[in-house]
Fold these 3 entries.
Entry 1:
Amino acid sequence: MAKEKEMLASDGHVVGNGLSKKEIRAIHMRNMNKEEIAYLRRKEAMEKVWPVARFLILFGLCFIILYPLMYMLSCSFRAQEDMSDPTVMWIPRHLTLKILSQTMDAMDFWKTLGNTLLLNIGCSLVQVVTCAITGYGFARFRFKGKNLLFGIVIMMILVPNQIIAIPQYMEFRYCLGLQPIIENAFGPAVGSKFNLIDTPLTMYLPALMANGIRAGLMIFIFRQFFKGLPKELEDAAYLDGCGPFRTFIQVMVPNAASSFLTVFLFSVVWYWNDYYVSSTFFTQNATIALMLKNLNTLLSIKLFNSATVEISPREQILWMEAGCLLAVTPLLVMYAFLQKYFTEGIERSGLVG
């Protein structure tokens, strides 16, 4: 019977010896001083207000994040006349794939996508490997100048790419100073072949030297992750006869799989969205980011056979939103499949919490 009375608390509000929750609360409050009562009332008010505030915050964040995507989808599949129709807000009156098709033609999408993937995936893989080795060295080994070198890594995070763009361009243009020497020795015809501008090497070489796009942050992530792994893993490997390199490959890398995936996804996104570094070393529109940057000119040439034709700003939005949709769709698809592992890697790398 006592258990039945206790179970009635949710329905009949009966607790313990037949007292309701309100009666028990009143008895407790009679035994409290004014400060305790005020604290209890503030706590009850927060418990009622916080769910509403939390809903409003989440709703606002979702609106800020989803609004551009919703507007992008709406514009990408509507006809040009819908932009002049004041009754069309979100749902197009005339659904069409014409705008999307014209944008894909202007961007030469499939060829550009192949070029972007060649640079993006390749540089990301190379950079993940080199940054992992560098981060492991900072996390596990002691050597002279370690703090100074790690300070340089932090400067790589803080200093923008624009600061080193001109020196890098000169190095690639003259092949690290070898081109003038070769021209003097073998003539201009041979020396001109040692110009790395407009070649994938301008992106691959910095990634190979752990100096690619946002490489400093990736080194920092790997350093934090490897520092969090137990030192006993390496001690056991050394006792079994493994050297530092074999220990890194066979012991540390399998335990850092989530961190590798996280850094790889970061690298893919940064290389995918980059247009400054690409526009510095490429004179042709070789990537999706560069195509999107020059989409206005490309559309004018494709649609009107003239780069000087001005398209109405309201209609121009359609093609720009379609271009943005084409640019972000591969990343959204990739993230949808890898979101679980990406979140796990973020938590274990020490970037949150």
Note: The chain is about 70% helix and 0% strand.
Entry 2:
Amino acid sequence: MIEELNQLVGQTAPEAPLNKLNTGIRQKRIGILGGGQLGRMLLQAAVNYPIETFVMENDPTCPSAHLCHHFTRGDITNFDEVYNFGRGLDALTIEIESVNEEALFKLESEGVKIYPNPAALRIIKNKILQKQFYKENAIPTSDFIITNSLEELKQASDFLPAVHKIGMGGYDGRGVQVMKTSEDLQLGFDSPSVLEKMVAIEKEIAVIVAVSATGETTLYPPVDMVFDPRLNLLEYQVSPADLPEKTLWKIEAIALKVVKDLKSPGIFAVELFVDKPGNVWVNETAPRVHNSGHHTIEANYSSQFDMLWRIMLGYPLGSTEHILPAAIVNLLGAEGHKGEACYEGLYDILQLENVFVHIYGKKETKPGRKMGHITILSKEKQELIHQANRIKQTVKVVSQ
């Protein structure tokens, strides 16, 4: 009987499929450049996968430091430090664009998988190259001119109203200046920048697109974004966006064209404007997990963070379908408060149904700093907007 069972096992478990399966589940060593809240949420999604995680950041108290297997204190803009960090890893990803892409090119040439690839990152991290990329690939975007100095900018008064964006280093609303009159030109940047013609915006939309290493793609439902006009930071958003069907098709087609022309696997957030006639214009693209996709942790079957791990591990893409419609509210440091963070109003908000709090673990608050977000789920859009506004009025991040 034992011999018969052994023969039966041998017939039902042939050697080749077992070897293939074992290859598929080998633990991979994957690094994240940057240790902020995006890295934190990425690490939180990693725990159910066979991954040994590595993080490099210059702040040992950053939000990601205690959640990874291995933390390296280092400068993500330094060639040697990035190169030495990435050697021996299976793959690397980023949580901020300002990384040394030359080191990534060298690592890629030595067999380390980079998500996104360095060629795509080089285009996206420079606002000038990014706008030129849209123009060269016939991707609809607002008209623009390049300025190399403040003196050049002052000659462009006939191009206003426009938005001046610094070529390198802008992030989270910094490096962006709205210019409506010639008096505003003195507020511009005295370095290579792009001056974009202002669009009469009806809606601001974001679409998260996932691209596998074999070129398969999937899109998350677009989201409506509402920005704080003073801080130029995402204040709250609602998903899915309320859009006419033809506009939705345009948005999805344009977002797919952007990522396909970048020719890179990874997660991409494509931000777009919709004007009153219904034209769609690409504003910017982020080559990473993004604030506009945070709701996917609770609201979609596969979150943007889960999806990126699937891509880096070579697994099938996950489902982007909604479980329930969602809204998120960003928790920003309150005006006039700088120091050890204290969160007012959380107790009251946590009594509400289908509300999920995410605190990023930053010890110090300051005005406008992203300290967390709150996700609300509901079948009713008006309920989402009502609760989002209630949370904005109730929860405050202040200093002790």
Note: Residues 52 and 303 are 20 Å apart (CA to CA).
Entry 3:
Amino acid sequence: MGKQMTNSIMKFAGAVAVALGTAQGAAAQEITVSSWGGFFEETLKAEIYPGFTEATGITVRSIAQPADQAWLTQLTNAARAKTAPADLSLVAAEVLARGQSIGLWAPLEAADMPVIDGLSDGYVRSNDDGTVYAVGALAWYTTFVTNTEYAADAPVSWAEMWTTDWDGKLGLNSAPNSGLMEATAVTFFGGYYIMETREGLEQVIAKIAELKPQVSLWYRDEGQFQQGLEAGEYNAGLYYHDVTNLSAADGNPVQSNFPQEGGIASDAFWIVPRDSENIDAAEAFINYMSQPEVQAQMVRMLGVAPVVPVESTDLTAEEFAAVGSEIAPIRVQTEIHLREGDWLSDKYLEMISQ
């Protein structure tokens, strides 16, 4: 290991120690952290949060939050009453953008979270004045999945969804923000720029319409597609990388494939509601959760992709391949979907139904 790398690691470790030590030196307190419910929240509570308490002396009260839109409504109503239902919350990109547009999130001090400097690009969100308002927590991927009994060879490009004969058995998500629009834009139009105008969006939708003779299912029920893919009712489609890998490990003839243009990445962020009374403790929590070793623990316990470079963790190549890829990802253009709103949804559903 080179001297420069050794010095970098020592500086990084020192920053972690200072930040965590500062929180530990403060009076012990409790913070409320909300996340998606069920197995996800239970695993965080049992396997991840105790390490934060041990490092800082701050206990965590874990609560499950409702579905995204219901949670955003609850956060909005709480802000009007100048209260916060949680000190920290895990939110998907759409909730993050909607909440930021109406000023729901508290400003955060980057200097009190030095570990976030080690996150991958795009995972520290700031206002125009540089004030941080959200920090990446985790990611997950949607990929080009196939039934291996029909297609033994993995597709190399998203273009093969159009050029390969899938025997009329493609399964695609019916939502315009599934990532298929972005994958189409990157594959056939050179990037996201074409999505900036309605004329461009219509061109992307028209390209997707070319798939319709091959599509036997436009799904909202993800379980329906998974079961059909496993049974051979569908030969390929758009689905979650991690879930497909788990299905394959159970012996089902399915495979998740990262095309050369990239898988479709979805992200979740930590935010602090603006009326939280425990912002200092929340910053200590975010700092702790951003550590490479904690990110690796999340990968192993929850099957999510890390928001730090994989080389900063001790994940094996096999562990990382189960949740992600080093190919630069395709990202859903959330701001465009929100800006175009009902118009885009109507155009997309019109294409499906015609």
Note: The chain is about 45% helix and 20% strand.
